[in-house]
């Protein structure tokens, strides 16, 4: 799976996330949440991603 910075992804736990930083092909920093009020920035790996739902 090819994940790029600013892609929107569906995580295996059902949450949607936006990739804000790509450190490598397997490690990313992502914002999860529905709006700036409840966004949380988390570190994720490619193993936690179900699929890319919107490419940047």
Describe this structure in words.
The protein is mostly beta strands and 56 residues long. It has one domain. A hairpin with a 4-residue loop joins β1 and β2.
The gist of it:
This protein is an all-beta fold. It contains no helices and five strands. Strands 4-3-2-1-5 form a five-stranded antiparallel beta sheet, with no helix packed on it.
Summed up, the helix count is: 0
Helix content: under 10%
Low-confidence stretches: none
In sequence order, what are the helices and strands, one letter per element? EEEEE
Beta content comes to: over 45%
Structurally, the number of domains stands at 1
Strand order of the largest sheet: 4-3-2-1-5
Q: Over the alpha carbons, how many angstroms does the gyration radius reach? A: 10 Å
Oligomer: single chain
Shape: globular
Helices and strands in order:
Blueprint: E1 8-11, E2 16-22, E3 27-32, E4 40-45, E5 49-54
Antiparallel strand pairs: 1-2, 1-5, 2-3, 3-4
Keywords for this structure?
mainly beta, single chain
């Amino acid at each position: 799976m090819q994940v790029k910075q600013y892609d929107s992804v569906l995580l295996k736990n059902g949450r949607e996330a936006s990739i804000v930083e790509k450190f490598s092909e397997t490690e990313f920093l992502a914002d999860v949440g529905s709006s700036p009020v409840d966004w949380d920035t988390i570190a994720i790996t490619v193993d936690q991603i179900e699929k890319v739902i919107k490419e940047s």
